[in-house]
Amino acid sequence: xxxxxxxxxxxxxxxxxxxxxxxxxxxxxxxxxxxxxxxxxxxxxxxxxxxxxxxxxxxxxxxxxxxxxxxxxxxxxxxxxxxxxxxxxxxxxxxxxxxxxxxxxxxxxxxxxxxxxxxxxxxxxxxxxxxxxxxxxxxxxxxxxxxxxxxxxxxxxxxxxxxxxxxxxxxxxxxxxxxxxxxxxxxxxxx
Length: 191
Prior knowledge:
- About 15% of the residues lie in helices and about 25% in strands.
- It is α+β, with helices and mostly antiparallel strands.
- It has a single domain (about 20-190), classed as PEBP-like (Phosphatidylethanolamine-binding Protein), CATH 3.90.280.
- The protein has a five-stranded antiparallel beta sheet with strand order 6-4-3-7-8, with helices on one face. A three-stranded antiparallel beta sheet has the order 1-2-5, with no helix packed on it.
- Strand 3 and strand 4 (about 100-105) form a beta hairpin.
- The longest helix has 15 residues, at about 1-15.
- The chain starts with a helix and ends with a strand.
């Protein structure tokens, strides 16, 4: 009887951790190895002058402002990196994770994306967000508590064989098993 109760409790707890809505958007991509050191002895890290990691995202980078994609900078990726993919997701959206941006096949020699690259960088290959459009669409949560927006830059061992406008689930599936390292930051926004 005790074993049966333990199994039942395990199933109940596993069910509580699941995500409603789009399960593909709620599944983070896990790198094959740990974070990689850059050539300066630091970590492969994603940074932006737009907001501090864990801080509030300014209105100009949201759907309530100019809706510019933030500027991003990063250090040297792990050895063997052939391309980068960038994903922005609201993990607090009603119904589960909501993708605000996917960009992929970013050349391995790049170390930055300029502000508003989503609209200004003609060479940036972008997938569909969960609004159903290609490119960046900033935070637009309903009124209430702050939402967390996770920006993840993946160092990949190959270039994705996807066309511009690929669905976010396709991008996640294509990078699975090819991640050499991951750099990220989180910003918050509350309406």
